[in-house]
Amino acid sequence: MEKVNLQDAFDSFDEHWSPRLAGELNGQAVKLARAEGEFVWHEHEDADELFLVQSGVLRIEFREEPAVTLQSGEFLVVPRGVEHRPVAEEEVEMLLFEPTETRNTGDVEAEETETDLERID
User: Fold this and answer.
1) Structural domain harbouring 69
2) How many Cα atoms sit within 13 Å of 44 on the Cβ side?
3) Does residue 33 surpass a pLDDT of 90?
4) Model pTM score
5) Which of 80, 96, 100, 110 is most buried per CB count within 10 Å?
6) Distinct helix (H) and strand (E) counts, the chain
7) Which of these, 23, 17, 39, lies nearest to 94 by C-alpha position?
8) What's the rounded Cα separation, in Å, for the pair 95 and 71?
9) Residues 46-103: pLDDT tens digits?
10) Does a structural domain hold residue 35?
11) Number of domains in the chain
């Protein structure tokens, strides 16, 4: 068992849209990510995805629904199969909770696709 200090963990990297693995439990990954700008449109056919904003403002856009804006301390669960695109006008620190094998770009192969996440020490 190891505790994680979120601020220290976020301070350990500065890349945007490149999630880091902070922990795992019950087949789920706890990922930390910094975001700025627009991410790719994608969906996760077999997994729900939870976005929890640590700092900043994150807008999650949907093709079929109105966008949802998350402030620090707020989270949203995007259901499996729902196409979405996270957007951060300014830098955001966020936690993601999803099955360990879930790719950050879901069903889309893009420059931002991460397949082997770096673990936060």
Assistant:
1) 6-108
2) 20
3) yes
4) 0.91
5) 96
6) 1, 8
7) 17
8) 13
9) 999 999 999 999 999 999 899 999 999 999 999 999 999 999 999 999 999 999 887 7
10) yes
11) 1
